Amino acid sequence: MTKKTQVGLIFGGNSSEYEVSILSGHNIYNAIDKDKFEVHPIWVTNDGYFANEEESFKVLKNPSYKIKTPHEIANIANLAELAHLPEIDVFFPIVHGNLGEDGSMQGLFRILDKPFVGDDVLAAAVTMDKEFTKILAQRAGVPVAPWIAIKRFEYQDAASAKHDYGKVSEKLGPDLFVKPSNQGSSVGVHHVTNEAEFTAALADAFRYDDKVLIEQTIQGTEVETAVLGNDKPLVSGVGQIFNAAGTFYSYQNKYDDNSTTKLQIPADLPKEIVDKVRANALKVYQVTECSGMARIDSTLRASDNKVILTEVNALPGFTNISMYPKLFEESGIPYTELITRLIKAGIERYNHKKTLLHKIDL
Ligand SMILES: Nc1ncnc2c1ncn2[C@@H]1O[C@H](COP(=O)(O)OP(=O)(O)O)[C@@H](O)[C@H]1O
Ligand SMILES: [Mg+2]
Fold first, then answer.
1. How many CB atoms lie within 10 A of CB 275?
2. Contact present, 296 and 280 (Cβ < 8 Å)
3. Under a CB-based contact definition with an 8 Å cutoff, are residues 183 and 97 in contact?
4. What pTM, to 2 d.p., does this model score?
5. CA distance 89 to 210
6. Is cis: bond before 93, omega within 30 of 0?
């Protein structure tokens, strides 16, 4: 019998998507092909500590298992100890948001010289920042919502026109979205239609980031596409999100039991629209140099049927109701097979990078 590939499954983390990540890890663990892979769970607590395998297994197998303070965790593995896990062949980080999805953890794997699942450093960092993503999408000819980015120093400058609702709405219209450039799960995202809401939204968004985007509101239906692989990526079908009138895909609507949002896979849209959504998703994946995986989110604008990019998620949710695995399931790749392919893509990328020279070859 060939030796099983040893997978370091990292989950948890210190972002607002901590709970989602634990559920994602739980689902990946349940679905992974146990004939091919042996899982070593690595739980990153909400305080940023790396727990040992025994404690990590407790959380992975029972997501409601909670330890209040990291001091209760026996034998906390620190980062240096991660490097001494010789048995790990490949890391699977399913840590959403801050540190897990923004290139930081990816940099750690590069330093540890280990293969890992999902995007590499550059793509993770770029797609975490919604403004950089939009700039690159435009370059690839993919439409984005018109926007203004405001940095903290501009926000603090009383003379700056960027936080003057009258001036901003002259440019973008009165109906706006305000959001931190680097966040996820709709945290700090606000829909505003007047000055008072605008002012409150900016103050809230700046609690999460030093750069805030003010976007024109795009009316239409939200669509999502999953992409998998490196040089010749697979693009899934399209899923659709129906928000109740007057609401958006907020944190509550993403995760609450009494969410008023409905998901539909596959989307009930004409073929030429679905093709456009998928073609845009591929362009965005490639221009941001994604590899491994990403979920590309857009809005089909009602006024002109244009597909407008919303954002790219380098580490999409993997819960049992999450779009990314569901989209591939619908496209004929079951969850277990999807995980195998993701791990393979990570190992292939690593093996290829090993063939590159890092200094002059005399
Ligand atoms: N410009 C916009 N026009 C209309 N709705 C928007 C706009 N920007 C964001 N939204 C709504 O807010 C949600 C979250 O915004 P998004 O940019 O995807 O951030 P996050 O990374 O937090 O998911 C979107 O799914 C959508 O419902
Ligand atoms: Mg989103």
1. 12
2. yes
3. yes
4. 0.94
5. 37
6. no
Please list, residue by residue across 164-200, b when 16 or more beta carbons sit within 10 angstroms of its beta carbon and e when fewer do: ebeebbeebebebbbbbbbbbbbbbbbbbeeeeebee
Residue type, position 62, single letter: N
189 alpha carbon – ligand 2 mean position (Å):
10
Residues at CB less than 6 angstroms from ligand 1: 145, 177, 179, 183-186, 189, 215, 217-218, 222, 248-249, 297, 310-311
Give average pLDDT by consecutive 10-residue segment, the chain, 362 residues: 89 83 93 96 82 85 64 50 76 88 91 94 97 98 98 96 96 98 90 98 97 98 98 97 90 85 94 97 98 98 96 92 94 96 98 90 76
Residues 122, 141, 143, 233, CA torsion sign: negative
Distances (CA, A) of 253 to 95, 97, 185, 263, 296: 21, 18, 10, 11, 19
* Ligand 1, atom 25: closest residue by C-alpha: 249
Q: Which domains does the chain have, with CATH numbers?
A: 5-116 (3.40.50.20), 127-142+219-351 (3.30.470.20), 147-216 (3.30.1490.20)
- The Å distance, Cα 91 to ligand 1 centre, comes to 30
